[in-house]
Amino acid sequence: MQSIRKNIARVQSYVAGKPIEETKRELGLKSVIKLASNENPLGTSPRALAAMRRALASVNRYPDSQGFYLKRRLARTLKLAPENLVLGNGSDELIDILIKTFVEDDENIVTSEQTFVEYEIIARINNKKVVTVPLSNLTFDLRAIARAVTPRTKLVFIANPNNPTGTYVNRSEFERFLKTLPGRTIVVLDEAYDTFIDVRDYPQGIDYVKGGRVIVLKTMSKGYGLAGVRIGYCIASRSYTPYLERTRQPFNVNLLAQAAALAALDDNAFLSRTRKVTLAGKKFLYRELAALGVAYIPSVTNFILIDVRRDCVEVFRRLLSLGVIVRDMKQYKLDTFLRVSIGTPAENKKFISALKKAL
Ligand SMILES: Cc1ncc(COP(=O)(O)O)c(C=O)c1O
After folding, report:
1. Is the fold of 6-44+268-358 the same as that of 46-264?
2. Which residues of 22-35 are buried (b: 16+ CB within 10 A; e: fewer)?
3. Which end is more exposed in the chain, N or C (fewer Cβ atoms within 10 Å of the end residue's Cβ)?
4. Structure confidence by residue, pLDDT tens digits, 88-114
5. How far is the CA of 2 from the centre of ligand 1 (A)?
6. In the chain, what are the domain boundaries?
7. Is the pLDDT reported for residue 205 higher than 90?
8. 219 alpha carbon – ligand 1 mean position (Å)
9. Mutate which of 197, 219, 229 to test ligand 1's pocket (most atoms within 8 Å of Cβ)?
10. Class of domain 6-44+268-358
11. Which CATH number is associated with domain 46-264?
């Protein structure tokens, strides 16, 4: 152990959602559903699947290091230049690239206490200081974050909407916050769940990228159903992107992921079906949870945080034994909360009937 760097020895590992196959094997169950990682329950766009099948014939070749076609396609949709984009092996990798590119050893990142844990984990792996600020009403507290920012703060990570709470910061709060920040501090707006937004006052990060105060993270893991091939991108000022490109590995986005992403962007029908099923599933779950007397936090995402008012690990285990994988929130210090991803109508029904038994 003595040879391990101190920051690595201290770092907490990421806890992933429990896989379906592992649960079946361990508990001897035939049928298991996973509502634990906010994945797309409808699968993947058929167009993306066909594109990957075609691309399989070329996997003896390295992927395009520049992601030329994918960037050009994204740039057309987003109405900006390909030079405003950097592709990543999921947005997880882009978090690492941003920290490596921007944060000096004596600088810090600021984020919330209960948010996507990878900001903190990756910063610590890179031996950077992390300052976390409590949520207020289970929402990012931008006033408190502004107070925590110092001239040594290089990046502020804001998941908007937030995982695991499903809450969001609105446009006026965000714009007020931006005005208070010191000139060198950059806000990273992580919009992993933007597909599911159903409110009007959501600030679209892309509107704030010009000028370099904001960098936006996007993933195709959720709405586009491509979590397994790993593809995300960041939208940033052209004054930053050449340096981000320098930091990344040359072949970070694999050939299948590039082909799938390119095809998925043309499949609006899949995206709108995903949105429709998710929003309808959310309504169903809200209604059923209310009927059960289970409190939930209204969400603008494809998951819901629910308060089971007893030890969340115990309820998680009971649900698991009934073939339903959700996420207990112990790691987030929300000891009585579970996070459940919105599934297909059949999965949502199975979850509710299992929850009735588990409570
Ligand atoms: C807020 C947030 N950002 C980023 C990610 C990671 O996405 P990716 O699959 O693109 O690495 C997740 C995944 O759960 C997330 O919840």
Report:
1. no
2. ebeeeeeeeebbbb
3. N
4. 999 999 999 999 999 999 999 999 999
5. 33
6. 6-44+268-358, 46-264
7. yes
8. 7
9. 219
10. alpha beta
11. 3.40.640.10
262-296 confidence digits (pLDDT tens)? 999 999 999 999 999 999 999 999 999 999 999 99
Q: Which atom of ligand 1 is nearest to the CA of 161?
A: 1
Each residue of 119-143: pLDDT tens digit?
999 999 999 999 999 999 999 999 9
Ligand 1 atom nearest to 221, measured from its CA: 9
